[in-house]
From TrEMBL:
Keywords: ATP-binding, Kinase, Membrane, Nucleotide-binding, Serine/threonine-protein kinase, Transferase, Transmembrane, Transmembrane helix. This is Protein kinase domain-containing protein. One of its GO terms (molecular function) is ATP binding. Pfam families: Pkinase. InterPro entries: Kinase-like_dom_sf, Prot_kinase_dom, Ser/Thr_kinase_AS.
């Protein structure tokens, strides 16, 4: 209703609010007009509950300034930020289209080629953010916009991090439990691979039209991320491309060290999943398998092998010291003769 945004009619003497287009627990988003540049913008207005926190305001200002410098075709650009009426706003690029969540709900499972295309665009956005030392921490279909031209735009970079720095185990989990990484669910220190896990969940949902874990509440779901192995998409549906499934499951490894080290490798695999080229982690697994086979082969003879190695070392040392003792004795005898 108009009364919900009447108090935000004109922000910073520049942005005229037209209508509310989205709402959340922490902020509302409005469609607005930039009166200076004569363009449509999206204006995100933060809840007054968070605007009173000095530490949060400082973090939010720093985050907004960093985000304003991020320039990438797959990232919703931040134009401006500021304070007004005791609250704070971020002015962003307005994207016409739908969220990925809405698309999945309407269409169901998406074609593999569409999934790969969207995934490459999302990964490219994350690569730029990670290069700028930003972890999104809230990758989910609701934060991914798709234009009518199939252009993907990732939004809400860093905002969730700033808003939930001190309440990660409550508010943030409540909002993103279906896409949260195991390490985030456990409250551990995060790195870029938390975004890779969450992206894996998004790819899983695009492929199956469902998330891998469901539960009665956010805690239940988070525990499943930590402890349970997800069903492979091929166990739920037919005609799942094997390589695409392997890529998704690799993103969703419980141990961050077992996932893609960076989204760059993920992009490389997505670009070749329809080719005959092996995936980046296939060669590593083959080497590990060869090592495992070798160990299995020698394990029955391990005791005798160790004993043989010990005997070889013993004989080498025995010969060395015997030779040394013989030489020392010969030299000593020669010296005695000379002295005599």
């Amino acid at each position: 209703p108009e009364k919900d945004f009447r108090k935000y009619k004109l922000i910073s003497k520049r942005y005229r609010i037209i209508k509310k287009i989205a709402s959340g627990g922490m902020a509302d988003i409005f469609l607005g007009d930039d009166l200076k540049l004569n363009r449509k913008v999206a204006v995100k207005i933060l809840s007054a509950n968070y605007a009173g926190d000095r530490n949060f305001v400082a973090r939010f200002k720093s985050e907004a300034q960093i985000l304003a410098r991020l320039s990438h075709p797959n990232i919703v650009q931040v134009y401006d930020w500021g304070e007004f009426n005791g609250s704070y706003f971020i002015c962003m690029e307005y994207v016409e289209g739908e969220s990925l969540k809405e698309i999945i709900e309407k269409r169901g499972p998406l074609p593999p080629e569409t999934i790969a295309d969207y995934a490459i665009q999302i990964s490219s956005a994350l690569l730029t953010a990670h290069k700028n030392n930003l972890i999104h921490r809230d990758i989910k279909p609701q934060n991914i916009l798709v234009t009518p031209e199939e252009k993907v735009k990732v939004t809400d970079f860093g905002i969730a991090k700033s808003l939930t720095t001190d309440v990660t185990k409550t508010l943030n989990i409540m909002g993103t439990a279906h896409y949260i990484s195991p390490e985030q669910a456990k409250g551990e220190v995060l790195d870029y691979r938390t975004d890779i896990y969450s992206l894996g969940i998004v790819l899983y949902e695009m492929l199956t039209a469902d998330v891998p874990f469901r539960g009665s509440n956010s805690i239940d779901i988070s525990l499943k991320h930590i402890n349970e192995k997800p069903l492979k998409p091929s166990e739920l549906m037919e005609n799942i491309p094997e390589k695409l499934e392997d890529i998704i499951m690799h993103c969703m490894e419980k141990n961050p060290l077992a996932r893609y080290p960076t989204v760059r490798e993920l992009i490389g695999d997505l670009q070749k999943y329809e080719t005959d080229k092996p995936l980046s982690f296939s060669a590593k697994e083959q080497n590990l398998n060869r090592t495992g086979v070798f160990i299995k082969k020698i394990r029955p003879h391990l005791a005798s092998t160790i004993m043989a190695a010990f005997m070889v070392v013993f004989m080498v040392l025995f010969i060395f010291y015997s030779y040394k003792y013989y030489n020392d004795k010969t030299v000593s005898s020669a010296l005695e003769i000379c002295i005599a």
